[in-house]
């Protein structure tokens, strides 16, 4: 057997798995604070920019048409090349769905160690990404690649929507119910995969969650109507919930027992499978000097706190919906077959971004 014939363990080439390799919220706040004032805010056609941490940029091109633009890429989160491609593409498309839009066109983004990993492995990554993009009803029109010591893959994606139909993460209202469409715990599982401690069945479950498009959640929410939306990825459930609440000028309450979990994920965290991104998320959420209120963890154990801060990859959608529409949304999500349809908390009056956790 030649060296090129040996199975490639992709996670050995990754310093951080999936969205856990993102810069932390604290790092991003530092960088953005150093930037000169951007001139993009002066364009009235830029309907959504980066001022409130939305999932994509939105630019109006006609009265009845806006383009939605996003990008996402990351290091290997699983060892199977085809599955990594599928996960990365599903994750990149999620931002389009989180804005209430339809994906149209994607470009591959590739960084590859040309002397380290055979190109046939890259071909399988691209096959996986392409299959998911086609499943979403979109096209891949090309891409860009560079030689790098660490493999990375993702997409730049363009979607379309009517300007008045765009969802933002800043539209939540007092009394709105928070609804989640996928179970969490993917950061712990990806850490176990990287350390060789995840069972085949657990890996299969995680891959299923991470390759399930959020189109079904978008379709259900379109039918019912929601006030705000985002997807839950690298900053964890609480990180993305706090962005939504902060942008909406509200506080929130989350009930721990109602948060859907992948079976075994909390046990992995208790056993020390805590992603680096999760640790950074937890530190930021608990930092009184972060510029945002810290989380009131209540009586949660440290493992339970890490669970709510767990860095997700290709997680579900988080909606803020009026309470009299909550049951209709749950029913619609179940009808559309989302992996979870859980009311996990509510929006309340209070200091913007403050969250209290109850059992």
From TrEMBL:
Keywords tagged on the record: ATP-binding, Kinase, Magnesium, Metal-binding, Nucleotide-binding, Selenium, Transferase
Keyword Magnesium: yes
GO biological process, one term: selenocysteine biosynthetic process
SUPFAM superfamilies on file: PurM C-terminal domain-like (SSF56042), PurM N-terminal domain-like (SSF55326)
Domain PurM-like N-terminal residues, every copy: 54-160
UniProt keyword Lyase, yes or no: no
GO CC, one annotated term: cytoplasm
Domain PurM-like C-terminal: 174-354
A Pfam family hit: AIRS
InterPro entries reported in the protein's UniProt record: PurM-like_C_dom, PurM-like_C_sf, PurM-like_N, PurM-like_N_sf, SelD_I, SPS/SelD
Record protein name field: Unannotated protein
Species of origin: freshwater metagenome
